[in-house]
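Course assignment 3, question 2. Fill in each field.
Student: A.L.
Task: Predict the tertiary structure for the chain below.
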Amino acid sequence: VDFDQIWLLSGGEADGADLRTDSAEFVKYLNLMTNSKGNLFIGTGFGNVYHANALTKSVGLGDLILTDRETHEYPSPLSGLIVTSTLSVNSEHPLLKGILVLPHVLKIGDFLAPSDRLRATPELQPLVNEDNGNIVIGELTVNGRKLIVDANLARTYLIREGHVEIQKYLTNLVTALEK
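Answer field:
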């Protein structure tokens, strides 16, 4: 069985709810994702880059997602969400079409959740950068497959609150990954 799209929402080794990257079950999924012909979306955040980097390594990119913090368990989005910063978007890329501003850093309960970032490579097309130049959303092609990476997927928690830009972003993501 093959897929048109594969979405990997990366987890971390310290989160008891996540599969460990050395577990037989994760290795099985990793092999399926690596050998599929489907386009890929990888979402990370909170330092939970372990699954994401296992996949980027398996397709020959090395560690693509960088973080300044160790992964850990974090509050549930049900503990409250506050957007503390946004990113201006000026792109006609299919992922960002019709979006002018994306929520960026969230406060979840009492936890401030800054973004992870992407390692700049010659193959990576930055789609959204922080003001300091860190790439937070990017796209590249690897082995004939489209790969889109979002280093701060926590922004999608706002879907629960009917956030229009997040609804548009997720709808656009499906379209941007179409073959």
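Instructor remarks: Residues 46 and 113 are 6 Å apart (CA to CA). The longest strand covers residues 135-142.
Grade: pending
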